[in-house]
Design goal:
- With 191 residues, this protein is an alpha+beta fold.
- It has one domain: Lambda Exonuclease, Chain A (Alpha-Beta Complex).
- It is built from 6 helices and 5 strands, in the order ααααβββαββα.
- It has a 5-stranded mixed β-sheet.
- A hairpin with a 4-residue loop joins strand 1 and strand 2.
- The longest helix has 20 residues.
- The radius of gyration is 17 Å and the shape is globular.
């Protein structure tokens, strides 16, 4: 079984054909050219050096583990911070080089759900929520609730991605046609 990252899940949920084009046919998406991706990766290193204790106090953190690479056999990822909360549950915290605009992008949410699964499997503790820090909004802290239904959707997506990869299955495109307008593969995708 191939170990997937949150990016695999996010891309699949955006459109299952994204998975097919990039990982079955091996056509790269050239994400390195995107400014936000590059800035986000630079930020990853910078933020680890800054003191964010005030954010952790605000949400009742007992303990924290920084920059944790976690895997469970079918999923892997690097969590900016794993938090043990006063409630006894745990939570992922992820920094975003973005402004908060009164809504949480589904990509950010899916990433936190993937991290929740990894934390539960590695720390054997329940995860009911996660946190996003929007660096370009003065480190605004936003809580994201994570349900069992959310985790089940990600686990089902992992199974479907494995099927695409192992059987070279050409999946149906997303039903959200607006996504096709900004897709890297729009010029080679069959409508």
């Amino acid at each position: 079984m191939i170990s997937l990252t949150p990016s695999h899940i996010i891309e699949y949920l955006y459109c299952p054909r994204f998975t097919y084009f990039e990982y079955v046919l091996g056509i790269p998406q050239y994400e390195e050219k995107h400014y936000k991706v590059i800035k986000g990766r630079e930020l990853h290193d910078i933020k680890l050096e800054r003191n964010k204790e005030y954010l952790r106090k605000k949400i009742g953190v007992q303990s924290k583990w920084l920059d944790q690479y976690l895997t469970n056999g079918y999923l892997r990822g690097r969590v900016d911070e794993v938090l043990l909360l006063n409630s006894g549950s745990m939570a992922p915290l992820d920094y975003k080089f973005a402004e908060y605009k009164d809504r949480i992008f589904d990509t950010y949410r899916q990433q936190l759900i993937c991290y929740a699964i990894l934390i539960e499997d590695n720390f054997n503790k329940k995860v009911n929520n996660g946190y996003l820090v929007y660096v370009r909004s003065k480190n605004k802290l936003v809580e994201v609730l994570i349900s069992e239904k959310d985790k089940d959707l990600v686990r089902k997506s992992i199974g479907r991605i494995q099927e695409i990869l192992e059987k070279n299955h050409f999946p149906k495109a997303t039903k959200f046609k607006r996504r096709c307008l900004s897709c890297t593969y729009r010029n080679i995708c069959i409508k």
